[in-house]
Amino acid sequence: MERMKLAFEGKVAVLKFNHPEVMNAVGAQMLADFTEAVLEVRNAGTAARCLLLTGEGRGFCAGANLQDEGRAARKGGAGDGLRSGYHPLLFMLRDLDMPIVTAVNGAAAGVGMSFGVIGDIVCASKQAFFLQAFARIGLIPDGGSTFMLPRMVGWGRAMELSMLAERLPAEKAYEWGLVNRLYDDNDALMKGATEIATRLANGPRSISLIRRAYWNTWSNSFEQQLDLEAQLQNQAGASRDFGEGVRAFLEKRDAQFTGE
User: Fold this and answer.
1) Residue 10 region by backbone torsions, left for phi larger than 0, else alpha for psi between -120 and 50, else beta
2) Which of 23, 61, 212, 213 is 20 to 30 A from residue 100's alpha carbon, by CA?
3) Core vs surface per residue 161-174: b (16+ CB within 10 A) or e
4) How many Å is the Cα radius of gyration of the chain?
């Protein structure tokens, strides 16, 4: 892969946007590489149990690369490109059977902001910022932003971010609840995000089931969500990790989970 870097560090798959010359803006090649990398991570043979997503260099992801040569080759409207390219990737990320940690180390603009906040745990350095840049070039937010932002920061703040297209510094994003963990610099960010990802990767099978439950709660009725909880609890209760967790509790020791 040319525009994404993928490395497996223990049970953590570390995936990096890799086009620092343009602040990791997404072009056709990066989008294809991103999709290929997620498919590889999803492969059970990798034994990965957590995905850590970050950017190479000073930026996390500066949105779509407007100078990318691949844009000219695509046919149809701007929305058609979303359906054929971005949407399958976003669905794969949503349905990934493991938690996602994002480490936002710089600019997270446009669709890059969407990738930044799709993490189950969003980490950021104080050098980072978020930007709904779409209105600046006459487009609407995409990448799931209009779904995610109202639910994460509220209607009014989502409207403000999208219509005024102003930078949201990482510290303010932390105050708003868009960021879970804030770090002084990028070195501390990567150390902290890696610790969180490792902790999740070493957690029980139920971590991925928790993730599935929360993604479904946005479309389910209360009754449907209760039924889903029961279904997922059956799966969790039948896991080896549940048995190990109970034994460890009774024996007053730390549980040794395997994800099974």
Assistant:
1) left
2) 23
3) bbeebeebebeebb
4) 19
CA distance 161 to 135: 10
Which domains, and CATH codes, for the chain?
Answer: 4-201 (3.90.226.10), 206-250 (no CATH)
Q: Checking DSSP bridges between strand 50-55 and strand 121-125, what pairing results, if any?
A: unpaired
Question: Considering the entire predicted model, what is its pTM?
Answer: 0.94
Distance CA 63, CA 52 (A): 19
Helix, strand or coil for residue 260?
Answer: coil
Torsion of CA 230, 231, 237, 242, to 10 degrees: -100
**Tens of each residue's pLDDT in the chain, 260 residues:** 899 999 999 999 999 999 999 999 999 999 999 999 999 999 877 789 999 999 999 999 999 998 875 554 556 677 888 999 999 999 999 999 999 999 999 999 999 999 999 999 999 999 999 999 999 999 999 999 999 999 999 999 999 999 999 999 999 999 999 999 999 999 999 999 999 999 999 999 999 999 999 999 999 999 999 999 999 999 999 999 999 999 999 999 999 999 99
Distance CA 61, CA 80 (A): 22
Angle at 63 between CA 59 and CA 69, to 5 degrees: 110
